[in-house]
Fold this protein.
Amino acid sequence: MDAISLEILKILQEKARIPNIEVSRQVGLAPSAVLERIRKLEKQGIIDGYEVRLNPLHFHRAQVAFVHVQTTTAACSEVGRQLSLMTEVQEVHFVSGNDCYLVKVRTADTASLSLLLQERIAAIDGVIATKTETVLSTIKETSRIPLPENL
């Protein structure tokens, strides 16, 4: 990957819907050359997709919590699979330590969070215990990958 491709990635991380002509202007290449580079980055799996960030308040999903999930050794993989199928679950991380997973969930409120924990997560076969930390406010939340300034 060269410096121009790196610059294209920085631009797309900042604003994924930016017109190709604007990207080409910023990096000093023809629009067709920029499009070719973007397609190559997609084909190589460097660009993994494009998403729209929605405001969770408009969808009654203001409550964020992180749930530590402890499982039996035998059930760890299956628990992770089942957690990943829940619509309220945004992230599932296999972690070191006493817990098997650290899970980020987003619900409408604490009552919905309580139902999710008690009726769905705790009900998964192999879950031994959960410990939940509710988010009071979010200072930073991003999916951007830090990129080097140059190669």
User: Anything to note?
Assistant: The mean pLDDT is 95. The chain has two domains: 3-43, 56-134. The first helix runs from residue 3 to 14.
